[in-house]
Give the backbone structure.
Amino acid sequence: DRRAETEPFYVSKQVINQAKKDRIARYAAEHFIADGDIVLMEAGTTVAAMARYLPAYRQLTVIGNGLGTMNELAKQLPGVTVFCCGGLLRDVGLTFVGPQAEAYFRQINAHTCFLSATGITTSEGVTDPNLLEIQVKRAMAESAARVVLLMDSTKFGIRSLAKIFDIRDFDILITDADVPAEVLEAIRALDVDVHVA
């Protein structure tokens, strides 16, 4: 496994593996959102990319914690109802974090939470470099009936600072075809519904 010690800035992440992220985002929007859904979209660039594939949905409510995601969702107004949590705005990820953000998500009942992260391994689970971000991601995940993880192939085999959750704690993984088949099989064996976009 490789370690991810530092957290990249949001704008630098936007250009990494853009085609793969876009395919994953489009697949997620087309297959895991329905009219009338209440969805949580966290602040990762792959999740934010889903916003441009939402206009076909009616009565869709989207709740997020990141300025990047909010800026993308703003382009879909008024067709999509958009909410954002409060909290402390971090400079690196342009995300709202802290007790206010966590408390906000704990009062929400959502259909689906779309998350991404810095790394995923079958032994360590899903990991991220910032503890404040992790707390908000956990609160978001706990507020939804199902959790969909969007991870491009470059994030596999990466271990970051701390665990968000174990593999078996999320429901669906959407990734790209460059993840080794045996890795996807190991994840499927943990009761995760794996999709390759």
Observations:
- The radius of gyration is 15 Å.
- The chain has a mean pLDDT of 92.
